[in-house]
Specification:
alpha/beta, binds UDP-4-deoxy-4-formamido-beta-L-arabinopyranose
Amino acid sequence: MAVLITGGAGYIGSHTCVEMLNAGYELIVIDNFSNSKPDVIERIQKITGKTLTFYEATLLDKEMIDTIFSNHEINAVIHFAAYKAVGESVEKPLMYYQNNLISTLNLCEIMDKYGVYNLVFSSSATVYGNPDRVPITEESPLRATNPYGHTKQMTEQILQDLFISNPMWSIASLRYFNPIGAHESGLIGEDPTGIPNNLLPYISQVASGKLPHLNIFGDDYETNDGTGIRDYIHIMDLASGHVKALEHVLVTTGVEAFNLGTGKGHSVFEMIDVFEQVSKKQIKYSIQERRPGDIAVCFADPSKANHVLQWSAKRGIYEMCKDTWKWQTQSGKQLIR
Ligand code: WQD
């Protein structure tokens, strides 16, 4: 019996493939490389010493999904494939709604056709918008503030309605906080195209000299040092959370959301300090205006995932920055063979 991983060549998808292969699962991976590179598939296999079956395809092609399900005995799906840039979603909402929603509708239709009802869905803490209080629990109101976040919130609603229509469905929606870091091998990691939107890849490229300095978006927030606070979680902890969520949906039915975070918040200046320690490079920065849509403080209450999934994040920000730096300085040099 195999597990289908959609978007398995992406940042979170590839690290989850490593953990799933290490856990002994047979994987079928689909990716259209819209936000990832083909050699990631070989690197996943090099890291684990195991093979997977790969299809270069988009979930917008329903016939292709049907073919994959007819070719393989699939008993569960981990669904990552989606566009995920907040800023881009504001500029191109239709592209986001079409891609993220139609992909999921196609996938669920074919899953239902083949009687496959075990699903782990890649949601996001962005569904919470600007929280009334922190730490954020799964009961916090959902009020996404951008089209990307709306697609995640709408998909969670679609999945709730699916279960109501057919109680065979067993679904875990995982709400990620701020995934950063890389596999310890330095072979896979976050590989944004163009100028990074997110803090850590940006800092990493400043440390490597690829970018001149970091723009800090506001130092006048109501926080200890004035900069934004986030719940950064090591990508390998996030990946292991997916394995635990898969094991959960295989033995239950229903629809559950889980926060995947560390439960700790760190500011921009704290992340700069740690990155300077691990890279031994000075991170030059300039204070800019706040970024529209940014919130001051966001971190998780991960106790539901701790108890129900028997999962917790193990790695701290030093290891997150160390592994990011290793990926930054080695990824170009690592040859597959
Ligand atoms: C972190 C902090 C910025 C860049 C985003 C998405 C969210 C999720 C994770 C998908 C903030 C500050 C950042 C920079 C800066 N993605 N910052 N200069 O915005 O918390 O979350 O990524 O699910 O949906 O919204 O992450 O890394 O962009 O920002 O000062 O160049 O770093 O203001 O305080 P964010 P981020």
